[in-house]
Amino acid sequence: MRSSFLSTLTESLKGPRSEGLKPLPNSLEKRVYNYKSAAKSFYCPLCRTPRVMKVRPKVTVWNHIQMGIATSFLTLFLFPVMEWRSLFMYFFLWSALESLLRVLYKKDVPCPHCGFDATWYQRDVREARRRVQEFWQHKEVKKES
Questions:
Q1: pLDDT at position 32
Q2: For the whole model, what pTM was predicted?
């Protein structure tokens, strides 16, 4: 019972690997960087390039452990001033980490090779198309200069 719990915990901390993705024959980029511990690996739907998400959008068990340790140290230093109310720092750390992870995840979504953003495509197809066109125009301007 205990070993199965530990094995599932360690598997959840590891996450999926990106070793299985190979560039497709008609992909935009042939050589992409391989990440060892990727949160998610997939192909870009527009340019068919292997993509990797480095950040998970949600707080994991390991993050909760880290926040607990940080809260204990903050409580140790703030106890003379705030007393037992300093234990509520855990919730402030949690909200700060949650918002930081969401921002980093949103920054990681657009494809660096073609500019396709799946979140904009789900919201508004015209806006997603406009953003891809702007990406290519900006890329062409960089090449000319």
A1: 58
A2: 0.68
